[in-house]
Design goal:
Blueprint: H1 18-31, H2 35-43, H3 48-59, E1 63-64, H4 65-72, H5 76-88, E2 92-97, E3 100-105, H6 108-116, H7 131-134
Antiparallel strand pairs: 1-3, 2-3
Helix pairs in contact: 3-4, 4-5
Length: about 170
């Protein structure tokens, strides 16, 4: 990940004086709400174990918590607690098939953010953006993504953790 310049610039060549700029920014911030909730949600990413879990779920969706624990080298109870926090904050959701519970990212936002943070997919895993969950339209930005999301859980290939539509 390399820091770059933002892709957005002012459309006007007019240079605002400092007071004008401060007032515009205050007005913009007053229109937005939910900063506290967003900060709390983003704070969960400051924990290395939870971030590793998200990278694993991004690389291979629909994996059991016990397999995640083994992959990140943590106790199952610690991993389950981390997954509960991530689920409550809207980062992941659980897919139950019978007695088996598997986890995946809960939104296209989480998926896109993980790509920005440098997370990739395993070679044989493709999965669509999860925009159906967060009200955004799917877009085919990554090879193999078809822009839709299946909720049915694992099929006959249940033991592998692969997405049924992959």
């Amino acid at each position: 990940m390399s820091p770059g310049r933002p892709a957005h610039v002012r459309t006007s060549s007019e240079v605002l004086d400092d007071e004008q700029l401060v007032e515009e920014l205050r007005s913009l911030l007053a229109e937005e709400d939910g900063f506290g909730e967003l900060a709390a949600r983003m704070a969960l990413l400051a924990d290395e174990r939870r971030l590793r879990i998200l990278f694993c779920l991004h690389a291979h969706p629909l994996i059991r918590s016990s397999d995640l624990a083994r992959a990140i080298g943590a106790h199952e109870s610690t991993t389950s607690h981390a997954l509960a926090l991530l689920r409550e904050a809207g980062w992941v959701h659980a897919v139950r098939t019978g007695r088996v519970v598997r986890y995946e990212l809960a939104s296209g936002f989480a998926h896109d953010l993980l790509h920005e943070l440098g997370s990739g997919h395993l070679d044989d895993v493709v999965h669509p953006h999860h925009h159906a969950h967060d009200g955004h339209h799917a877009h085919d930005e990554h090879p193999g993504h078809d822009g839709h999301h299946a909720h049915g859980g694992p099929s006959a290939d249940e033991g592998s953790g692969r997405r049924p539509d992959a």
